[in-house]
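Tokens for TRM2 tRNA methyltransferase 2 homolog B (S. cerevisiae). Go.
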Amino acid sequence: MSVFLWLAEIKRRVPMHSPRSFLSRLGPLSKPGLLPWCATKHPGWSKLFLGSACEGNFTNVKTKKWQRGQKSQKKPSYIGPLDGSWQERLADIVTPLWRLSYEEQLKVKFEAQKKILRRLESYLQKLNGINVTTSAPRVEGLSCLLHPIIPSPVINGYRNKSTFSVNRGPDGNPKTVGYYLGTWRDRSIVCVRSNHLKNIPEKHNQVAQYYEVFLRQSPLEPCLLFHEGGYWRELIVRTNSQGHTMAIITFHPQELKQEQLGVQKEAIKKFFTTGPGAVCDLTSLYFQE
């Protein structure tokens, strides 16, 4: 059972890569018969093209055929920045529409919603034997009214929670804090810093940056895989509308005695209260075993 130990209560302050890539992630409804996809979702669903916002069609591939083809393909043992920098590749995964203006992003998402509704109508028609085309007037190919997306007043740094992992960076340093590229299965994991991602607040990236500084001066190794040992693990940062910032640092105690564990707790507390990490101005800091 995880145990949260409160370490520090610090001064409180009051008062895409492309549209096609984004739309392909909505694939479960792009293939007839896959509407109840929550129970059985085959691994190739993201390969099915959904949106009508982009030109061209993707060939629908049956689940079994797709699985057989995947098994026969050899995976690369290492993942590298083939068609862009590490930062660009990470942005393409986390925020796939980042290359478009906000107005263009809304258009792409609106087209994706229309595509989903068309699939729902088709599914209901087949399920109930209802001719949707004659039962109601159609607007833009839909029998129901689809309102435009209401733009958000905040389009950058809008996340209130960020989870940062610890692993080897592009330079091979295992004490790198950021987001993953690659897969564990292929042993191709690379941890890339996230300070360029538009959806993460500057405060979250600042805490992650200083956690990395702490790790690189700590004598203890990070815990990359449980069976390989190591201690320091992921970081969670949360902020609210009042400007309060909470950080949760996960630590694997391994075989450390309570006295040795206390030394590490005191070290991380001191770093973020009176050390270099004090500039993060954390409201609260938690140590999770």
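The helical segments are 19-24, 63-72, 86-94, 102-128, 132-135, 202-217, 258-273.
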